[in-house]
């Protein structure tokens, strides 16, 4: 079997890594990239014994078949497939079956490959943790490799710590140390290895869908018209498509969808569907005896039906990677298939080519933006906003994710809170200064403290405005006004004529109020500051102290998370 160029590159990256390192490594390959071919080639080249683990028997069978097609023998250890052989050079196993056998877990292997490894949890009493620990006890020099299209989990974050491109994903321990190879999905489409996708945002329908999955059942009972309209549309489109895959929000939601699609042509798969029934439904769908297949959080990975050319997404997700995984179900090549139509009725709004950010969307209209670090130049991917011309308006990044040659994280912080003693910049959620260990004041404690004091005022800020102001000296200045949701105001005046005044404006106002910190700020005069008002964000709270001539702003609180209610934002 002839490997594609990128498959050869992936295999080469694995060999190169394990020649010099023993740390667990990760390959990130989109759906349809041929992970099973890469696994087969690695198993063929390996000098020692190889164990290939996955969580579903379909993948066990599929990966095993690829190795057989390359003329190599291999065993299968899977109760669901009725085979429990584990003595060969290469063994394909389901994690559930292997974890149930102490004898199987004590077999010596030189390499363990985990397919769909984003499901791995190496903490506590998880199956993967028990199996990996047992295998390492048998062979402490065992190498661990993971493959996935989605290296991020909403409940645990990234499954690896560092990327080969110099990005730090997490300072905390993860199942895999380094992502040693990542293939963008756009490259596969451009080179003709995947079918192009045409993604359409079902904007009107999305207004009728629930805000989150938990409200789906209530919505369907009281506003079933949304589901009816969507299903009528899918039924109409189905006549000109080969296979339709629907992602529903909940089991109740899925049942409602099935009831409104053509009977006899539609089936539902959920996590509770018995294995035998699930196999039969998938078999009928692949044989095109079923046109519509509805599922609830089941067919996002390990499912291969190349004829799918219409995908309807009726559930929301905070993960770019999961969205791309769902779309990926329809990107495999198939005869007579020119594109896959994707209808995003849930208004997720992600791009098929966007990288995973690793954080939920802070605002519904956020998009993935690239922000270069002004200190090390690393290209960070954060959530943010751009104007119609692609100009960055705002980003929500906190710290540069770049790694230096010594594998230390860059210390530049886009957003921070300053230590009052040593002026070191700390993470906005830090409780102690990383430089001098001083306890940093908790925002809740600070608000509670000043609310008790007679000569202090707390403004629940809902907006910010900038106006031109003439100082008593006649020099030009800028008046900053913070607006309370009830109409109250607090103001501060900054000079902007001399270098010292411009520096004070930046230090005391701009650096904390900038929507896109780290982006060079070049404002020539006070008029330019006023014209650039959209570059600045308002704080959540403003604290002022009464002085002889009125209130003086002494503190602004950003990125607040606590028990006190914030204003309904004017943004």
Automatic annotation (TrEMBL):
<dbReference type="InterPro" id="IPR001650">
    <property type="entry name" value="Helicase_C-like"/>
</dbReference>
<dbReference type="GO" id="GO:0004386">
    <property type="term" value="F:helicase activity"/>
</dbReference>
<dbReference type="GO" id="GO:0005829">
    <property type="term" value="C:cytosol"/>
</dbReference>
<dbReference type="GO" id="GO:0016787">
    <property type="term" value="F:hydrolase activity"/>
</dbReference>
<dbReference type="InterPro" id="IPR050742">
    <property type="entry name" value="Helicase_Restrict-Modif_Enz"/>
</dbReference>
<dbReference type="Pfam" id="PF00271">
    <property type="entry name" value="Helicase_C"/>
</dbReference>
<keyword id="KW-0067">ATP-binding</keyword>
<feature type="domain" description="Helicase ATP-binding">
    <location>
        <begin position="16"/>
        <end position="169"/>
    </location>
</feature>
<keyword id="KW-0347">Helicase</keyword>
<protein>
    <submittedName>
        <fullName>DEAD/DEAH box helicase</fullName>
    </submittedName>
</protein>
<dbReference type="InterPro" id="IPR027417">
    <property type="entry name" value="P-loop_NTPase"/>
</dbReference>
<dbReference type="GO" id="GO:0003677">
    <property type="term" value="F:DNA binding"/>
</dbReference>
<feature type="domain" description="Helicase C-terminal">
    <location>
        <begin position="229"/>
        <end position="369"/>
    </location>
</feature>
<keyword id="KW-0378">Hydrolase</keyword>
<dbReference type="Pfam" id="PF04851">
    <property type="entry name" value="ResIII"/>
</dbReference>
<dbReference type="InterPro" id="IPR006935">
    <property type="entry name" value="Helicase/UvrB_N"/>
</dbReference>
<keyword id="KW-0547">Nucleotide-binding</keyword>
<dbReference type="GO" id="GO:0005524">
    <property type="term" value="F:ATP binding"/>
</dbReference>
<dbReference type="InterPro" id="IPR014001">
    <property type="entry name" value="Helicase_ATP-bd"/>
</dbReference>
